[in-house]
Amino acid sequence: MSHPLARLREDVAAVRLRDPAARGSLEVVLVSSGLHAVWAHRLTGRLWREVPFPGARLVARVLSQLVRSATGVEIHPGAVIGSRLVIDHGMGVVIGETAVVGDDVLIYHGVTLGGRSLGADGRRHPTIGDGVMIGAGAAVLGPIHVGPGSSVGANAVVTHDVPPGSVVVGVPGVARPR
């Protein structure tokens, strides 16, 4: 979407669509911590990627940590986030620096999109396809791909690629067709 106000409306509509407890748009705008974190990430992500002055990345990181304190959601400014991401309940969600999250993704509380290595170079975090649902407490770790339309069960630990349209459950996570 090109117009910022239209994108904000689209975000609110996405939360209302995926959160049965959302009773109205005003409530979503005022109390949805996951939505606040996504909106803040748009600002910090632009600072991280597009602002040419030397301190921009530091400012982006500081702002992202302030947002983490306020919302319980930590999205690194370097992460790439698609449209209509919904983070339901939010608390404890961590999205790492090289993570890529597609469109229409639903993430529940306590989810980690994290790395498995300490290397500073290259991709360390997962790529999440469009229309993926990640259940509460799940950990998706490393430079793996979760295929579009997949679901990751609550508390699953995923360390290998997930084919499109799969359901992943367990520790370690095992992908099964729907």
From TrEMBL:
Answer yes or no on keyword Repeat.
yes
Name the catalysed reactions: L-serine + acetyl-CoA = O-acetyl-L-serine + CoA
Designated name of the protein: Serine acetyltransferase
CDD domains per record: LbH_SAT
Task: List the NCBIfam families.
Answer: cysE, EPS_EpsC
PANTHER family cross-referenced by the UniProt entry = SERINE ACETYLTRANSFERASE
For the keyword Protein transport, the answer is no
Q: Which UniProt keywords apply?
A: Acyltransferase, Amino-acid biosynthesis, Cysteine biosynthesis, Repeat, Transferase
Biological pathway: Amino-acid biosynthesis; L-cysteine biosynthesis; L-cysteine from L-serine: step 1/2
Q: EC number(s)?
A: 2.3.1.30
Per its UniProt record, what PROSITE patterns does this chain match? Answer: HEXAPEP_TRANSFERASES (PS00101)
* Naturally occurring in which organism (per UniProt): Frondihabitans cladoniiphilus
Concerning InterPro entries, the annotation shows: Hexapep, Hexapep_transf_CS, LbH_SAT, Ser_AcTrfase_N_sf, Ser_O-AcTrfase, Serine_acetyltransferase, Trimer_LpxA-like_sf
Similarity field: Belongs to the transferase hexapeptide repeat family.
Pfam families to which the protein is assigned, alphabetical:
Hexapep
